[in-house]
# Entry
Amino acid sequence: MVARDITIDGDPDEVWEALTDPELLAQWLGDDGQAIVEEAEPSERLVLWLYENDDPGSRVELRLVAVPDGTRVTVTEAPVGPFALATA
# Structure
């Protein structure tokens, strides 16, 4: 599992909009990437399954928290499939 934090200049509603905009999401995923939304709590939490073609991919959780400088986004990624077993 990998976890990272980043603070983005903007309130949680603005960051949420950017994270869920289909055109921006397509840029993030690239030509072969696909995403399935598992859970969505607007402006707070987004859980996606990301994968490419036959790759089992990973589960990505994004948590948004308002902070004085904008919005802290915590990204947690957990691989699935054989890769997850090899790194456990």
Summary: The first strand starts at residue 2 and ends at 8.
